[in-house]
Write a structure and sequence with these properties.
single chain, mainly beta, Immunoglobulin-like, 2 domains
Length: 277
């Protein structure tokens, strides 16, 4: 259930998006979102990582996050604006320095001015194996929270509604693709195919495999994993032995078991590895 909107309460502010593996010439950042209708003053609030006892103040001066608005805390604010020229919102650097966001995973706590945790976000390397792509909440009001790699073409949506956003659990199964065709050539641009699966239930069991065009098995991407109503995964164009596959069409086979609905569905999708220029 979503928390009640208490106007200008700090409890309405959540960690909404995390860029923990930005890739070369980019900067790490964390986006906060105000779920409430009233503005909240972030003065005295702070961030803390699970492996670091020190807290990093977001601001000691008045820093307003408007109702349904965003604030970004970046390692390098100038570099953030340079790499996100369309961002017109508020970006600040944490006071006292930045604690690096481990690519292997961490838990981040948002603390109010009294040092009380008001929200936390947990991610790990499996959350997003693609450098330059953030992890984001599917819906900031969902409880428990559902996270996934951003489906935005630019790798993230700072200051905007998350690319994975859904307002409710869908009525039927749907599968969407980003970067299809894709070119896994190591240039950090469309190196993976991003697959988003929406399920008409709070959770389900997912199985996904890749075959060549002649039906020969190549790799398993998801092996009977329990997932939330929206799940995002990637394929990097390799087979089960980690060997890169040649350019051409491939078949992605997806099974969805929905225990609460006593339903099993399956679908096949064409995925194309493009030749590098």
């Amino acid at each position: 259930m979503a928390p009640q909107d208490t106007g200008s309460s700090m409890e309405n502010v959540v960690i909404n998006e995390i860029m923990f593996n930005p890739g070369p010439n980019r900067t790490e950042w964390i986006e906060l979102y105000n779920r409430g209708s009233g503005a909240v003053d972030l003065a005295g609030s702070a961030l803390r990582l699970d492996h670091v006892e020190r807290v990093r103040l977001i601001s000691t001066d008045r820093l307003t996050i408007e109702g349904h608005g965003y604030v970004v805390i970046a390692h390098d604010a100038a570099l953030f604006r340079e790499t996100h020229p369309g961002f017109g919102g508020t970006v600040v650097e944490a006071m006292g320095g930045w604690e690096r966001l481990r690519n292997s995973g961490a838990t981040i706590w948002l603390l109010d001015a009294l040092g009380t945790p008001v929200h936390d976000a947990e991610y790990d390397e499996a959350s997003n194996p693609d450098p330059g792509r953030s992890v984001e909440l599917v819906n900031p009001d969902f409880d428990p929270p559902v996270w996934g790699p951003s489906a935005d073409a630019g790798g993230g949506t700072p200051g905007r509604r998350n690319a994975l956003y859904v307002s409710r659990i869908p009525d039927g199964v749907s599968v969407h693709f980003s970067n299809n065709p894709f070119s896994p050539d190591g240039d950090n641009y469309e190196d993976v195919c991003l697959v988003t699966v929406d399920l008409p239930a709070s959770h389900g069991i997912l199985h996904a495999m890749v075959f060549d065009i002649h039906g020969r098995f190549l790799t398993t991407l998801i092996d009977q994993a329990t997932v939330a109503s929206r799940h995002v995964f990637t394929w990097d164009g390799t087979d089960q032995h980690g060997r890169g596959l040649p350019a051409g069409p491939y078949i992605l086979y997806i099974e969805q078991m929905l225990p609460t609905l006593d339903r099993l569905t399956a679908s096949k999708h064409l995925v194309v590895i493009a030749a590098s220029p």
